[in-house]
Design a protein that fits this description.
elongated, 132 residues, 5 helices, mainly alpha, three-stranded antiparallel sheet, 3 strands, 2 domains
Length: 132
């Protein structure tokens, strides 16, 4: 599947005619007085389904979905996960040092990463149970 990057899709949606988009029985999709797509009924059920989909996926809907994806990508769980990885990697680097103080800091970083990951998983499980 050839996916369009979200930034490009967002730019395309912002440049499109504002909705709401409406499908007419003729198979044309309009935004106000402007025709934005044509899926003639002669294409059968597929043309009608395409027209319904195009009308439903107006720019406001696409922008809302992109916004939701961006929110989920930068969720607290993602942030904590990234922080755990960073602490773990920093710990690995410090453990390579000949300096005993750096090695102690490295061990502490590794412990912090593990503790944070365990607590984050507990929180995520609790939030998922609450959502159900």
């Amino acid at each position: 599947m050839n996916m369009i990057p979200l930034a490009k899709l967002k730019k395309l949606a912002r440049g499109a005619i504002d909705g709401p988009w409406v499908r007419l029985k003729s198979g044309h999709v309009y935004a106000g007085n402007a025709r934005v797509a044509e899926c003639p009924p002669c294409a059968g059920h597929r043309g009608e389904r395409n027209a319904k989909f195009i009308a439903a996926a107006d720019p406001a809907v696409v922008l809302h979905l992109i916004n939701r994806i961006e929110q989920l990508e930068f969720s607290p769980a993602r942030f904590v996960s990234d922080l755990c990885l960073r602490f773990d990697r920093e710990g690995d680097e410090l453990l390579k040092s000949d300096n005993p103080d750096d090695q102690a800091r490295g061990r502490n970083r590794k412990i912090a990463a593990t503790s944070l990951a365990v607590e984050a998983n507990r929180l995520i499980e609790a939030l998922e149970e609450e959502a159900e």
